[in-house]
Amino acid sequence: MRGCFVTRQHACGNWNTNFHTGHRPVFKTDGQTRLRHRQFTMATPPRPGHMICTLVFSFLFWQLFTAGPGCRILTHAAGGEWELLLKNVGITAMHMQLLHNDRVVIFDRTDFGESNISLPDGKCRNDPNDTVLSIDCTAHSVEYDVATNSIRALTVQTDVWCSSGAVMANGDLIQTGGYNDGERVARIFKPCSSCDWEEVPLGLAVRRWYATNHILPDNRQIVIGGRRQFNYEFYPKSDNARNAYSLPFLVETNDPKIENNLYPFVYLHTDGNLFIFANNRAILFDYSNNVVVKTFPTIPDGDPRCYPSTGSAVMLPLNLQEPSIEVDVLVCGGAPKGSFTQALKRNFVGALKTCARIKITDPSPEWVMETMPLARVMGDMTLLPNGDVLIINGASAGTAGWEYGRDPVLNPVLYKPDKPIGSRFEVLNPSTIPRMYHSSAILLRDGRVLVGGSNPHIYYNFTGVLYPTELRLEAFSPEYLDSGFSNLRPIIISPASQSNIGYGQDLTVRFSVTGKLNPDMVSVTMLAPSFTTHSFSMNQRLLVLKSGNVKNVEKSTFTISVTTPDSVNLAPLGYYILFVVHQGIPSEGIWVQIQ
Hints:
- This protein is an all-beta fold and 595 residues long.
- Strands 26, 40, 42, 45, 48, 49 and 50 form a seven-stranded mixed sheet that branches. Strands 12-11-8-7-43-44 form a six-stranded antiparallel sheet, with no helix packed on it. Strands 5-6-38-37-36 form a five-stranded antiparallel sheet, with no helix packed on it.
- The radius of gyration is 23 Å and the shape is globular.
- It starts with 25 loop residues before the first strand and ends with a strand.
C-alpha cells in the first residue's frame, strides 16, 4: 500500500472535504438533500481518487506524494496513528459490534432513505410501514471483515434506529428494539460468513428506543429504559419473566421535555447487582428482586451526562490480582444543564470538561472530579488492552440530536487510571474527519480502534451542511502499536485462538518477546467486546487476571501461569479477547470462550 505520511502538522490535500460529494448524484425530496442510489456492492472497496499529500517536517522541507488506496496518515508516533480503511462502507456506522470471527456488524436505520450500498442479488426490502421507502433495494446493515478490509451487505427488515444489544454466550448478537415497526422486535445475528439478520416480532414486552442492554450472569440480557419506558425486561423470555418491571429511578432522573436519562450507563457489579447511572446520579440495583440496594451521591456539578446531554462512561479494569477487587466507574463529558433547550434555539453551549470517578465498592463512595484537557460531548470511551481508556469522537459544543452539535473534537485523549490525579490525561494526534452525532468506536483484536459514523441529519445528507453524512471507516492505532515497540510486543503462542476455558481454571499462556523481557511487567488481560452506539459501549469489560511468575522456557519464549475468573459475576459466560501485556505493550489478542 502506498501511503502519505505526515507529521502532527500535516496537510493532506482536501482531506477535510467529504469524499462522497461530487462522486454520486443527489436529488432533493421534501427540502432534504438525499443520496441517489448507485448500484454497487462493497466486496472490494472502491479506489479513492488520487490526492496530493504534503509532508511538513520540523526543518520546513516539503515533499509531495500521490496517495493510493487507504491513504495512511502517520502522525507523531507518540500520539498514535490514523489510517483510512475504506472510503465508503455504504451506511453510517451508528451501531457497531465485534464478533468472535473478527467481523464487525454495523447498522444505522431503515428510514434514512436509500443508502450507498445495494442488497445482494437484486434483493429488495418490502416494508409498507417504513416512513420513507416501502420498497428499498439498499442495505442498512453491513458486516465488516477486519482481515480482508471488505464489506458485505446485510438485510435488516424493520427499523433498528437508536437500538441496543449484546452478544450471548454462544456468540450470537442479540439486538433489541428500534423505531416504528422495529420498536418491539428482537433480532439475532449469528457469526458465520453467509449469515444474515433473523427477526423475532414482538420479542419485547414494550417498545424500546434509546434503551441499554447488559449480559447477566445467567446468560439472559436485561433491557433497561428507553424513551418513555421507565422499566426493564429480560431477553430471552421465560415463563416467570415475560413482562416489563417498573424502575422508578428512571422516572426520578427524567428531565421533563429533555429526558437526559436515555441510554443509561449500566454495569454488572462483582456482587451480581447492577450499577445504573442516569442523568447525574446512580443506584446499585438488585434486578432479581426489583430492589434498590444503594443510592449513590449525585455528581457534584449536577450536570447531566446521558442522552441527549451525552457524555460517556466506562467501568475501569477489574484487577483480579488484588485480594479485594475494587470497582471504579468513570463518567466523562456531557453537556451543562439547559444545553439541549439552548440548542433548540440554535445557541450551542460549550460541552463539559469534567470527568467524575467513583469507587462503588467503598462503604461510603463519593465522586471525585477530574478535568479533561478538552471539553467533549458525544464522545466514546474505549477500554484498551493495557487498561488505559481512549476518549474519542464528539463535539465541543451543543448536544446530541439533529443538528445540535458544533465544533468537532478531532483529538482523542488517553486516560491512564493508575496515575495520580492531575497526570492521567494525554492528548493524542487528531483525525481529519469530524465524528459527530451517530458516531461509534470499538476495539479490534489487533489493538486498533475502529472508528466510523457521524450523521446528524434526518436523512443521508452530503452537501450544503456543516457536517455531511460520513461513510468513511478509519482505524486509530494507539502508541503501543508503533513499530518502535515491536521488540517488546508479546506474541501469544498458546493457547490457540477460539479455545474454551472454565471458571477458576489454572491456565498456562506461552508467548514470545524478541527483545529483553521485564518479568515484573507482564500481565494478562481479558476483554469483553462492546455493543457501541450513542457514545456508550454496552457490556464493555476488562479483567486483569491473577497471575504467577514468568518463566523463560527457551530463547525469547516464556510462559506465565494465570487463573481465570472464578465467578460469572466477574465474567459472564461468553467470548472474550485475551491479551498478554508487557511494559504496557499488548500482544495481538486471541479469542477465548469462558463456559
